[in-house]
């Protein structure tokens, strides 16, 4: 079982396996979306009693909703150590946060980004001058590549976009060191913390970054909720991301003036319950950081060590130095295509994993380039607060069996019935 000191998630369902049995679902897809925390469900349930639009009325429900919404913003600010002059904008997800930031950059901003980024962080800059750095081979290499790009940037405004943790290999990036290089050259830094905040404390000042974005659904809150936190100046001058009600200061027949602050970019009725849920998740994680870290570290070392010990399994790493990492591992199984590995894990063992390129095509292509040319995708397992030791042992046993014997006959039999 998960230690009692770790915030509880809603109970895992029993799922059918192809031998006709039922087994507790082993969710190894926390890197995609996490199950809800019990405390998040409770916070949302409480807030449904005051369902009402925020900042739009004097009615009791409206006042309470407005209070909850702004208290949620304060919790998010506290969670990432927002400074004076930072603001918290609620968005739909990390992708939305980076698209908002892309639209808010001063016109001539030069963007520097590593090719290894998730597409949410790699792609929103297409309308900007962008320098795409290759996938680094080591942490030192990443620093050298960034130093060189910063030296060559002639723009008066530069934004360096970094990941906190890779959604493919689980490795942590040396954010503090890279951000210091950027700051030394007068550049700003935006951090994709989607795979980091659930596992490690993120503090804007300690890391030396200007913006941070993450998604609620990766920290045990619902889909459709995300945040962008950071320097208010560019955001306050930018064209509103969502023009509409709530974002306006005054509307005349010929002109509109816009609010400053987060409301400028949050036009329309916001996802109040989503914001409350994100804040509840942030509070639970903030208050239980050390229990979460020790639970996940134990799982991660067993998971990584166990997978690497299986003959025919290859795990992947960017920096080749992954002692400290998030509980996310990408691997391939010799002779078994990745979609089949993931389908068999589901159908035969009730284990949910992901296969493919994980919205990080350039990184996966680089990591797999030494492999057989036929191997173009990997399997990813990602653990979290709902993961038990039994899940890890079930996964390792299942992968060992797939590596030794291929997919079992039970799986072959149901394949034609569209089980997967
Ligand atoms: N960055 C990273 C590192 C991610 O893992 C993800 C989600 N897979 C995202 C960004 C995008 O998050 P979302 O899909 O919630 O916008």
UniProtKB/TrEMBL annotation:
Q: Which cofactor does it need?
A: pyridoxal 5'-phosphate
Keywords from the named record = Pyridoxal phosphate
Record domain Aminotransferase class V: where? 28-395
Top-rank taxon, per record? Bacteria
Concerning Gene3D superfamilies, the annotation shows: Aspartate Aminotransferase, domain 1 (3.90.1150.10), Type I PLP-dependent aspartate aminotransferase-like (Major domain) (3.40.640.10)
Record's family? Belongs to the class-V pyridoxal-phosphate-dependent aminotransferase family. Csd subfamily.
Q: What is this protein called?
A: Cysteine desulfurase
> Mind giving the lineage of the organism this protein is from?
Bacteria, Bacillati, Actinomycetota, Actinomycetes, Micrococcales
């Amino acid at each position: 079982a998960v230690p009692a000191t770790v915030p509880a998630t809603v109970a895992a369902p029993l799922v059918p396996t192809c031998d006709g049995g039922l087994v507790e679902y082993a969710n190894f897809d926390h890197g995609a979306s996490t199950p809800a925390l019990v405390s998040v469900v409770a916070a949302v349930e409480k807030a449904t009693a005051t369902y009402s639009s925020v900042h739009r009325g004097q009615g009791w429900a409206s006042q309470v909703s407005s209070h909850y919404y702004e208290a949620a913003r304060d919790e998010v600010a506290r969670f990432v150590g927002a400074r004076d002059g930072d603001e918290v904008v609620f968005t739909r997800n990390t992708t939305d946060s980076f698209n908002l930031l892309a639209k808010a950059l001063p016109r001539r901003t030069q963007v520097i980004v590593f090719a290894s980024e998730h597409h949410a962080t790699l792609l929103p800059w297409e309308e900007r001058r962008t320098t795409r750095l290759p996938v680094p081979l080591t942490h030192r290499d990443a620093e050298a590549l960034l130093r060189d790009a910063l030296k060559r940037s002639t723009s008066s405004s530069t934004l360096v976009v970094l990941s906190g943790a890779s959604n493919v290999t689980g490795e942590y990036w040396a954010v503090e060191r890279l951000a210091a290089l950027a700051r030394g050259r007068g550049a700003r830094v935006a951090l994709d913390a989607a795979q980091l905040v659930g596992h490690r404390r993120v503090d804007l000042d300690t890391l030396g970054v200007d913006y941070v974005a993450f998604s609620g659904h990766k920290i045990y809150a619902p889909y459709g909720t995300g945040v962008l936190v950071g320097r208010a100046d560019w955001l306050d001058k930018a064209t509103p991301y969502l023009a509409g009600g709530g974002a306006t200061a005054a509307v005349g027949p010929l002109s509109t003036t816009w609010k400053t602050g987060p409301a400028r970019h949050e036009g329309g009725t916001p996802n109040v319950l989503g914001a409350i849920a994100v804040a509840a998740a942030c509070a639970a994680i903030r208050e239980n950081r050390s229990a979460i870290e020790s639970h996940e570290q134990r799982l991660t070392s067993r998971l990584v060590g166990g997978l690497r010990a299986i003959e025919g399994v290859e795990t992947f790493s960017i920096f080749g130095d992954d002692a400290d990492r998030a509980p996310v591992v990408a691997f391939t199984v010799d002779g078994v295509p990745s979609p089949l590995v993931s389908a068999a894990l589901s159908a035969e063992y009730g284990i949910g994993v992901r296969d493919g390129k994980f919205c990080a095509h350039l990184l996966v292509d680089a990591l797999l380039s030494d492999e057989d040319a036929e191997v173009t995708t990997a399997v990813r397992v990602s653990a979290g607060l709902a993961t038990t030791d039994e899940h890890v042992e079930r996964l390792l046993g299942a992968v060992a069996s797939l590596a030794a014997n291929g997919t079992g006959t039970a799986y072959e039999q149901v394949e034609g019935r569209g089980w997967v």
